[in-house]
Amino acid sequence: MPSLIEEVDLYIDGITALAWREKMFDIVKYVPSRQMLIARVDNKPDQISALNNKSCVMVSNTSMARNLEKIKHLNNIDFNCITVDDFDLMDKMVSEGQVSFTVYDSDRAFAALKKFNNLTILWPISEVQFMGWAINKKNKILKSILRKYIKYAQENAILDKYWKISYGVTFVEYMKVLNLGVSRN
Predict the structure, then answer these.
(1) Strands 55-59 and 80-84: what pairing?
(2) Nearby residues of 39 by Cβ (< 8 Å), 6 or more positions away
(3) How does residue 15 score in pLDDT terms, banded at 50, 70 and 90?
(4) Residue pair 121/109 in contact by the 8 Å Cβ criterion
(5) Whole-angstrom distance, CA of residue 103 vs CA of residue 109
(6) The whole model's pTM is what?
(7) pLDDT at position 142 over 90
(8) CATH number of the domain at 2-33+128-180, please?
(9) Assigned CATH topology for domain 43-104+116-124
(10) Average pLDDT over residues 4-22
(11) Taking the domains of the chain in order of start, what are their residue ranges?
C-alpha cells in the first residue's frame, strides 16, 4: 500500500489512520473504529478468560494480531491463532465453527455480520481510532474536496444511508456499538 499511494491519487479502501502512515500519505478521516471480537452466536465467550484454550483466525502482521497477543499476555491466557491471507476467510471460518473467534475493525465486523447471520460482535479490544481514505500528499486539492464531501455527508445523514446498505445497520447504530461495545444478534 505505501508504494501504491505514490502511483495513485486516492486509495479509497478504509485504512486506520496511524502516525507512521500519515508520514507517507495524507488521510481523510471519516469514521471512528475499534477492533471488535467476533464469535458465533451459539458460542459466545462471556469474558476474556473464556478465550483460554480456544482457537482464533487472523491475518498475520496486523494491528489486530498484535492486539490479540497483548490480550494473551495481559490476561495470562493462551489460545491458538491460525493465520490466513484473506480477511473474508476469517469470518467464514468462525461461522463454520472451524475456529472460535476472530477480530475485525468495527466496520468490517458489521460486514461479517451482514454476510453471516450466526456471527455476533462481542466487545472491543482496542481504543477508538479513525479510518479514512489515503491520498497522495501531492494532491492537496483532492484532499480538500474529500474533506468537504465527508463533512457534507456527515451533516446530511448520507453516511447513515451508506452504512445501512453496506453493513445492515445505520451509522447511528454502528456508533452505539462502537462506543458502548454492546452485543448485536
Answers:
(1) parallel
(2) 45, 94, 100, 101, 119, 120, 122
(3) confident
(4) yes
(5) 8
(6) 0.80
(7) yes
(8) 3.40.190.10
(9) D-Maltodextrin-Binding Protein; domain 2 (3.40.190)
(10) 80
(11) 2-33+128-180, 43-104+116-124
